[in-house]
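Worked Example 4.2. Consider the chain below.
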Amino acid sequence: MSDLELRRRLRTFINQAEAAWFKVYDSSLGRKVIVVRGDEYIQLPLQFSIRPKIIAFFRKYWSPAFSQVQFCNLKSILFRGRRYVILADPGPVPNHVVSLRIICQTSTRIRVRAVLSGGSSGNVVIFYTIARSSSNGLTIISRTGLKNDYRFIPCK
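Applying the procedure from the previous section yields the following structure tokens:
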């Protein structure tokens, strides 16, 4: 695979990974709303109806640790056997690759510098470490810029 092809693949992969949390959260829009202890929650579709399905979806892009944290930050509840997420406007975060540069790579790891747009404060530089498997799969195992992104707040 040429350097240009790898950069294109990484750009697509990172864009999909950054959009994964929103894909789960936004899948609830227009669905059943319930009120629990004064908070409104919206039902997720069957595709994301239980925790293992959501974690498995995040694992397409993220390490187990990142997947767990993103699940936790959905602020979901289980009600009568179905998963619901809190009704709120999550706000903007940097999640779209504007530019990308491969810093270094080995047979098992790729270190990437990406400029992401979409946040309230403009473009942000994010560094990723991406694990590469023998089956040509990619998994994000490290990402900078976590403290200002509600998707990656450490869970209690």
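The mean pLDDT is 94. Residues 92-152 form one domain. Compare this with Example 4.1 before moving on.
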